[in-house]
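step 3/5: co-fold with LQZAQKY5
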Amino acid sequence: MTAPGTRTGAPAQDSDDLDLEEALALVRQPRDDNAGQTPAPEPDTNGEGNRVTPWHQARETAARAARTRPRRAPVSVPLGDALGLVLAAPLDALTDLPSFDTSAMDGWAVAGPGPWLVRDEAVLAGHGLPEPLTDGEAARIATGARIPADTTAVLRGEHGHTDTQGRLHATRDLAHGQDIRPRGQECRRGDQLLPIGTLVTPAVLGLAAAAGYDTVTAVPRPRAEVLVLGDELLTEGLPHDGLIRDALGPLLPPWLHALGAEVVAVRRIGDDAEALLRAVTSSDADLIVTTGGTAAGPRDHVHPTLERIGAELLVDGVTVRPGHPMLLARTKDDQHLVGLPGNPLAAVSGLLTLAEPLLRTLAAHPAPERYALPLTEAVQGHPHDTRLVPVVLRGDCAVPLHYNGPAMLRGVAAADALAVVPSGGAPQGAQTELLDLPWASAGIGVCFT
Ligand SMILES: Nc1nc2c(c(=O)[nH]1)N[C@H]1C(S)=C(S)[C@@H](COP(=O)(O)OP(=O)(O)OC[C@H]3O[C@@H](n4cnc5c(N)ncnc54)[C@H](O)[C@@H]3O)O[C@H]1N2
Ligand code: MOO
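step 4/5: write tokens
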């Protein structure tokens, strides 16, 4: 990645403590009313007195957590379902490619020097072996058709003409072997075309099919289960009477899929501690993702549930805004739970901070290249936490978006990436690390099917 951004000296007010309008204006008009004051000391505990994890470290912990368990056995997957998986076995050619000598052009297969007598029957692609040519003979041939035995070259249609006696003449010099693709030109049967660990892209699917595969051997998608908590959530219609629409039920499954997971279930648990306990203990998913209930309110059941089942808390709070109450726990030897905060942008922050590295390891995806771009505007920082701020990419710059409050999706819905703004903020022009969003990256994540 390019050099990280310079930090501004001006500590900023925590965006969570600002009122709505101030929060909206944060990026537009960086505040400097704290300039010159001593920054608040770095807090290292959450509300429970436990250590919180720095943002970069939280991502590394999540990536490493999944390495402690054996990877699930490779699976054989039909080509139509393999997009976005990673090869668990090398792709060795099952055939020579091309598998027979083939014409590279529409024209005539010719034998020996011209002029040639043209045979009546044409040679078409997809047909059986044509009759051999005799010296001085030509046959009309299509691109991709099998070359008749004893053919010395293919003359392109635009480079030949027939005279009044029906003899074919070349209008250009014709080299021996010209426009014949010999069998095995691209590979021989058994050649390794792609190594283990290759991401299955559309091009890989095409190559696998060409090389004779109906299925590929791949790392299976890790199975994820989503548990949506909260009694206040509606699944349809307009918000009313203090109830709001569930934004995370629709957001998470396709996003998790883009991160490499197979979402096996989405369950709505409400604020029912016993239902949450049952759902967690009965799940055989590799990853359970909960939404809401991470804080310490009377209805926040995630921590007590993890305590009841003796789960190991690997990350309990992260120095990132939004999303700092996010958590990662090991619930069984081969199962993790990511607790996403209920505020929707905070949940996105948790998804990218904890679920993405964990799933990346489980799915054997390569880590994305870290990169940075300059910001078109200064971005206000948190005094001691990293901020994740939605941006759009324009040319070689990142343009911060304004609707970036923890409860807002308006910014991220228009964004290409999240800017990783260090504590203290980033001035205009600062090179700032970016996390691409799956629909905007050039990677396979763009495929949501
Ligand atoms: N006393 C404190 N209160 C809070 C703190 C704190 O440090 N001390 N942290 C705040 C922060 S920051 C966040 S983030 C939230 C985290 O809360 P929870 O994870 O416990 O989430 P809930 O309380 O269940 O919900 C928070 C908020 O989000 C709405 N929500 C929940 N689920 C959804 C959903 N699926 N779709 C749309 N919106 C959802 C919910 O209605 C609440 O408005 O805690 C703060 N409080
Ligand atoms: O800052 Mo919370 O973590 O609202 O998202």
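step 5/5: annotate
Residues 102-181 form a domain with the Molybdopterin biosynthesis moeA protein; domain 3 fold (CATH 2.170.190.11).
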